[in-house]
From TrEMBL:
One term of GO molecular function: NADH dehydrogenase (ubiquinone) activity
Catalytic activity: a ubiquinone + NADH + 5 H(+)(in) = a ubiquinol + NAD(+) + 4 H(+)(out)
Organism, as annotated: Lyssa zampa
Membrane topology reported for the UniProt record: Multi-pass membrane protein
Transmembrane helix recorded as keyword: yes
Name this protein carries in UniProt: NADH-ubiquinone oxidoreductase chain 4L
Length: 95
């Protein structure tokens, strides 16, 4: 059962990476794939820390940092939509 759970988390993380690498047209899809990878890492930590009977306070710290990462990504998305009126990376000139 433990091996099956580990396999599910690894597959979730790999699918998140595949979406992150292949769907780089819209910023929103990239942010959603990053949140999916954070969710898979969170579930892995939950399983691992409960397996070794460790305190789950580290999960709360991880959730705080992941929420901060999500809010930062959304603020970048909103500022990009306000300045360029869409979230395409092609219309966003970095120079």
């Amino acid at each position: 059962m433990m091996v099956m759970n580990m396999l599910v988390f690894i597959i979730m993380f790999i699918f998140g990476n595949i979406i992150f690498v292949s769907k780089h047209k819209h910023l929103l899809i990239v942010l959603l794939s990053l949140e999916f990878m954070v969710l898979s890492v969170y579930l892995f930590f939950l399983l691992f820390l409960s397996l070794i009977n460790f305190d789950l306070y580290m999960l709360m710290v991880f959730l705080v940092f992941s929420v901060c990462e999500g809010v930062l990504g959304l603020s970048i998305l909103v500022s990009m939509i306000r300045t360029h009126s869409n979230d395409y990376f092609q219309s966003f000139n970095l120079l």
